[in-house]
């Protein structure tokens, strides 16, 4: 039985973790299947939704595999996860994760590699590695502090603190909260809108923005100017600006409601 299913819909690929009996714990087969997709997604795919079957997004690393590894094998395993999650975060496709239930350990590391996270009220976040004599190995020590700060991550690891959906939203682990059972639909709605953006703008957001954020102010401003000029000079941008000036494109309006409901 496959542990990852892939569906395509109007330029959006929907990747669904399929190990519900194990709360979608991540084994090597699943992680490598995710990598295989992102290596060759298909030219028609412009955005991705990362979803999970059952009541939980992912309870993290499948510990049944970990107990059989030597130190050297564990190192190689961590490097493999880094490679796969780097492909998600640093690739050319915007990724929206639909979160629910357990988002724990490696599951949180996977979610942190996505660009947008939508959470249901059942979502809860934890990093139990400290209580299990472990340390994060899927890039969490780099990505999660960028979202919530090293001090909050330390609290979760040292004390076993569990954050609920509202606490996770306030801390920065998700950008959107939705009703119970609504994360997939909301994530798909967002992904379809992202897929409709100018491809060069999406490229700039995924590739230039993180580098600008980590650059010196002078270097960041220069890169911003260069990327802005490249994007504005594209045929796609010029056509979209003409449509706006001619009244053929919608204007931005107020947000529709709370919890990250979007402006248009």
Description:
Belongs to the enoyl-CoA hydratase/isomerase family. It catalyses: a 4-saturated-(3S)-3-hydroxyacyl-CoA = a (3E)-enoyl-CoA + H2O; a (3S)-3-hydroxyacyl-CoA = a (2E)-enoyl-CoA + H2O. Keywords: Lyase. By secondary structure, the chain is of the alpha/beta class. 47% of the residues lie in helices and 14% in strands. It has eleven helices and nine strands. The strands form two sheets. It has a six-stranded mixed β-sheet, with helices on both faces. It has a three-stranded mixed β-sheet with strand order 5-7-8.
Give a quick set of tags describing it.
14% strand; lyase; Enoyl-CoA_hydra_C; six-stranded mixed sheet; 264 residues
Overview in brief:
Keywords: Lyase. This protein is an alpha/beta fold and about 260 residues long.
Helicity range of the residues?
40-55%
Q: List low-pLDDT spans.
A: none
Beta-strand residue percentage: 5-15%
Which descriptor suits the 3D outline?
Answer: globular
- String of helices and strands: EEHEHHEEHEEHHEHEHHHH
Task: State the total count of DSSP E strands.
Answer: 9
- How far from one another are the termini? 42 Å
Number of discrete helical segments: 11
Broad structural category: alpha/beta
The largest β sheet comes out as: 6 strands, mixed
Rg, alpha carbons: 19 Å
Q: What is the mean pLDDT? A: 92
Q: Strands across the major sheet, in which order?
A: 1-2-3-4-6-9
Please render the helix and strand layout as text.
Elements (H helix, E strand, L loop, with lengths): L3 E6 L2 E6 L10 H12 L7 E6 L10 H4 L4 H19 L5 E5 L2 E3 L1 H8 L2 E4 L4 E3 L13 H9 L1 H10 L3 E2 H7 L4 E2 L5 H13 L3 H16 L2 H16 L2 H11 L19
Parallel strand pairs: 2-3, 3-4, 4-6, 5-7, 6-9
Antiparallel strand pairs: 1-2, 7-8
